[in-house]
UniProtKB/TrEMBL annotation:
Domain Aldehyde dehydrogenase intervals: 24-467
Active site: E250
Organism of provenance: Corynebacterium halotolerans YIM 70093 = DSM 44683
PROSITE patterns per the UniProt record, alphabetical: ALDEHYDE_DEHYDR_CYS, ALDEHYDE_DEHYDR_GLU
PANTHER family reported for this sequence: ALDEHYDE DEHYDROGENASE-RELATED
Family membership: Belongs to the aldehyde dehydrogenase family.
Origin: domain of life: Bacteria
Protein's UniProt name: Aldehyde dehydrogenase
Keywords, in A-Z order: Oxidoreductase
One Pfam family named in its UniProt record: Aldedh
GO molecular function ontology, one term from the record: oxidoreductase activity, acting on the aldehyde or oxo group of donors, NAD or NADP as acceptor
């Protein structure tokens, strides 16, 4: 498929035909309907070897281009993604389940082109460290070589761009390993971007866990970028040790939000809702446990219920929906187990909590749970779905201590009418990012990363670019 074709007449079916398996593929089903989306290639470790070698062979020429030339290619990649935006969004909706509208499929594809453009716009110049008349020392960042990008199923296209855009900008070649649940979306995205890149610079291998494991140990791969569970992240750390790989790990989160007693419940309700339920709750940096003071607890609960009841859930390709299914049965079962544990404990379910187990698709209704113990499984385990526990507190210090008690620290938020007071509370929260009166609002200009069990390393902005290079100091 030529670039011109992509610009004028590409459909979702044409994209799918360009990337799905000719034979011996693996069925990918729509999580909203159970219908066949397409057949993903079942690549093997041998296919990975071929992809890595292609990356090695192409990297030197790509790295030899000027920074300006590589940025120009990233801008052209953004143009190509925009030209194919609607078919990409439709394929994403069918495979991942997220609706076209709201902060979902069309939003995700738009974020891909926006992140490509932003990554190409950052200035990263030689930095003078010392220049005192006797010593002159500068630092630059050289290409690592080949970068392995292992992505998740919740935001498969957008997070792939988060990984590959800075890697390409810094002169690296890339091998992408998408999630087994959402390979077609990533294959299509890479297909579109490769219409403007030199052959071999960006490669994708769609396989099972053994392919990801082989990528993590491959001696020709200098860095792994991984977004996913803490359990898998620990395995990657162990697997990469033998080759001393660089790592950026964005792992599981169980983000806390703390509402202060001066907040306006109605004013913050919709932002609270989307902080928790964006992508139907399937977001690492979503709001997953909300601490609300007794003084305004009932008002906040009532305001959230009012917002939740206005948000339609259903099949993603139906334009009216803004919430979709859980992407897979395993995640549905996790959410169901945790909500049932909350109900069994005597917690008060404000909205739904009663899925239709006989209906097609992995739909779990929007669920708000009040008057729940802070040690309940729904609070201390990451639900990663459309169920939000709302914990009542009377002492702010205790609420902060509970927010910090878990071995996670990706994001968090503070909600208040007094921004200075909110910042004081934010400084006491253990998380890589603390948002004020919003939650999960990532920005390509602002570094993002976790602490504790949520991983390490920074993405986005100039710091994210530096993480995709090898620092070299020249002093003399």
């Amino acid at each position: 498929m030529t670039q011109a074709t992509l610009q004028t007449s590409t459909t979702a079916e044409e994209l799918l035909a360009a990337v799905e398996a000719a034979d011996n593929g693996r069925d990918i089903l729509n999580p909203a309907t159970g219908e066949l989306v397409g057949r993903a290639p079942a690549h093997t470790v041998a296919d990975l070897e071929t992809a890595v070698q292609r990356a090695v062979d192409s990297q030197q020429g790509w790295g030899a281009l000027s920074d300006e030339e590589r940025c120009d290619r990233l801008m052209k990649a953004a143009d190509a993604v925009e030209a194919a935006a609607e078919p990409l969004a439709q394929l994403l909706s069918r495979e991942q389940g997220k609706p076209l509208n709201g902060p979902n499929a069309r939003f995700e594809v738009g974020a891909c082109s926006a992140w490509l453009r932003a990554t190409a716009s950052f200035e990263l110049n030689e930095e003078t460290l010392v220049d005192d008349g006797e010593t002159h020392a500068v630092i630059n960042y050289r290409p690592i070589g080949v970068v392995g990008a292992i992505g998740p199923w919740n935001w498969p296209m957008m997070i792939t761009i988060w990984q590959i855009a800075p890697a390409l900008r810094m002169g690296n070649a890339v091998v992408v390993k998408p999630s087994e649940y959402t390979p077609l979306s990533v294959l299509a995205l890479v297909h579109v971007i490769n219409t403007v890149l030199p052959d071999g610079v960006l490669n994708v291998v769609s396989g099972e866990g053994d392919v990801g494991a082989a990528l993590s140990t491959h001696e020709a791969v200098g860095k792994i970028m991984f977004t996913g569970s803490t359990t898998t992240g620990k395995k990657i750390i162990e697997a990469s040790a033998g080759t001393v790989k660089r790592l950026t790990l964005e792992l599981g989160g169980n983000d806390a939000g703390i509402v202060l007693d001066d907040a306006d419940p109605k004013a913050i309700a919709e932002d609270l809702f989307w902080g928790a339920f964006i992508n139907t709750g399937q977001t690492c940096a979503a709001l997953k446990r909300l601490y609300v003071p007794d003084a305004i607890y009932d008002e906040v609960c009532a305001a959230l219920v009012e917002v939740a009841e206005q948000m339609p859930m259903g099949v993603g390709l139906e334009e009216q929906n803004v919430l979709g299914p859980l992407q897979n049965k395993a995640q549905f079962d996790i959410v169901d187990r945790l909500v049932n544990a909350a109900k069994a404990s005597g917690a008060r379910v404000l909205t739904s909590g009663e899925p239709d187990y006989d209906a097609p698709g992995y739909f779990y209704p929007t669920t708000l749970v009040a008057d729940i113990d802070p040690d309940n499984p729904l609070v201390v385990e990451e639900q990663f779905g459309p169920a939000l526990p709302i914990i009542r507190y009377t002492d702010l210090d205790e609420a902060i201590a509970q927010a910090n008690a878990l071995d996670v620290g990706l994001g968090s938020s503070v909600w208040s009418s007094d921004r200075d007071r909110a910042r004081e509370v934010a400084a006491r929260i253990q998380a890589g990012t603390v948002w004020i009166n919003k939650h999960g609002g990532v920005d390509p200009r602002i570094p993002f990363g976790g602490i504790k069990g949520s991983g390490y390393g920074l993405e986005f902005g100039v710091e994210g670019l530096k993480a995709l290079g090898v620092p070299q100091v020249i002093s003399g």
